[in-house]
Amino acid sequence: MKQLLTFLLTATPVLVSVAQTTVPTPEIQIKAAVLAAPADKRAGAAVYGYTGDGTLTLLRKGTNELICLGDDPKQKGFNASCYHKDLEPFMARGRELRKAGKSGQEIYDTREQEAKTGKLKMPKNPTTLFSFSAEDTDFDKATGEVKNGYVRSVVYIPFATAESTGLPLKPDGPGLPWIMDPGKHNAHIMINPPKQAPATK
């Protein structure tokens, strides 16, 4: 036991544990977060992650148009996302309202109203978000490796409708695009590829 304690106190730390929540190092958070981005966008994406006390903070400045959010260690499962920088006002407003204790519906209604009045600036062009998720057991917090991950794509087209895009209101088959929240500030095209069977050892 004494040898184990000595090792834990002197070994190079790869994890930070605060309030029973394990937070990977910034390097590991960056490595895992950018897995949500297309391969050719990963090196230049800005990355936000979490400090030991759970505060969201900028871990790496970006050189291209993507912003990535690392996995929230307080939430069940692994989930990282990367989105176009023009979506940042929309995303930041959501985080701000959530921090203020607003419910999901309150956040939606507030952003809808603010987008319609112009207070909340929504992108003028279609902008994409990539979401990468996996089970807790498939995310190695010590190495940043993720197994059996699933990527879905969301293309925001504010206030677009099924009629203006020709898209259906629900998918006609696995992996086919469809439009959600048509006519709303967060109208978006959903693209959910078929899920593959988990890899076996």
TrEMBL record:
The keyword Signal applies. Residues 1-19 form the signal peptide. It comes from Adhaeribacter pallidiroseus. The lineage of its organism: Bacteria, Pseudomonadati, Bacteroidota, Cytophagia, Cytophagales. Keywords: Signal. This is Uncharacterized protein.
